[in-house]
Amino acid sequence: MGWVESLQKAIDYMEENLLEDITIESIAKQANASVFHFQRTFTILTDLSIAEYLRNRRLTLAAEELSTTDHKIIDLAYKYGYETPEAFSKAFRKQHGVTPSEARKNIGKLKSYNRLMIQVNLKGVEPMKYKIVERESFKVVGIKREFSLVNGENQIGIPKLWDEVNANGTSDVLFKVNNGQIKGVLGVCVDKRGTHSGQMMDYWVATEVEGDTPKELLSLEIPAAKWAVFEVHGAMPDAMQKAWKQIFTEWFPSSKYEHAHGPELEVYSDEDPFSPDLYSEIWIPIK
Who wins on pLDDT, 34 or 60? Predict the structure, then answer.
């Protein structure tokens, strides 16, 4: 099964089980992917977490039922996974801007989140510059934090970590000790497959080092792999986010390669992060 078909199968599974208490593990299994990689890919493509997508879709269907049936609000609350009518009303108002009672009376406008269908358009896409690199294992040193993937907590915590290391001088230390083949400071995403039901990840701010590990830093062995190395041009964070989306929506679906499920690397230089001419890289293990 191809990459696009696998992702669509997982989306179809979510849609077919919207009224059930489904888990992220069961969803990722439909795509034959780990929880980490499925959630990461899904968020890159949709700008939503899986929990947000499920909530938006359930509240869309609930609004349709309120407008077209005489089912009691309390019954709809339980049907769409809310323990109390109050919790349902709060979530409903947050999405639609009106209460369930107002929606029943056709007061205000409702916000509809439609069912996702994966489509790949290869006409007129921007060219991507990349190279294939094979490397033996190598060592990076830096600091590590564990983040939860639940409700996109990693997306909130990782930018805060970068603010911290830039403010306390850690990034300066990493640039100074960098003497490996990859020049710059790395953001390293590590899938903790098999632990915590796959709901956790490690994120490193690190750099490649040959030799001893500085005493104030931790070390991580990056396993031998074949890598697709993509050029990223432009100011942060928009250029990096755009590149990730282009890789998953255009490059992977049209290439012969698959993700090898090892650590992913983002490579940052010490140049002005807001410069339109900034050069960065994305390293993805492939097979």
Answer: 60
Residue 18 has pLDDT above 90, yes or no: yes
Residue ranges of alpha helices (H) inside the chain are 3-16, 24-30, 35-46, 50-68, 73-79, 85-96, 100-104, 153-168, 170-177, 238-246, 252-254
Write down the pLDDT at residue 124. 45
Tokens standing for residue 68: 């077209």
Confidence of residue 197 (pLDDT cuts 50, 70, 90): low
Which tokens sit at 259? 């993700």
**DSSP label of 39:** H
* pLDDT > 80? residue 126: no
Distance CA 13, CA 3 (A): 16
Q: What is the pTM of this model?
A: 0.85
pLDDT exceeds 50 at position 107: yes
Helix (H, G, I), strand (E, B) or coil at 37: helix
| Dihedral sign from CA coordinates of 160, 261, 216, 147 | positive
**Residue 182 identity (one-letter amino acid):** I
Domains and CATH numbers, the chain: 3-104 (1.10.10.60), 130-286 (3.20.80.10)
Tokens of 162: 């970068």
pLDDT at 228 over 60: yes
Distance, CA of 272 to CA of 274 (rounded, Å)? 5
- Please, what's the largest Cα pairwise distance for the chain? 71
Q: How far is CA 32 from the centre of its chain?
A: 17
Query: Using a CB cutoff of 8 Å and minimum separation of 24, what contacts does 75-84 make?
Result: 76/100, 79/19, 80/19, 81/19, 81/21
**Strand boundaries in 106-192, DSSP class E:** 130-135, 138-148, 185-191
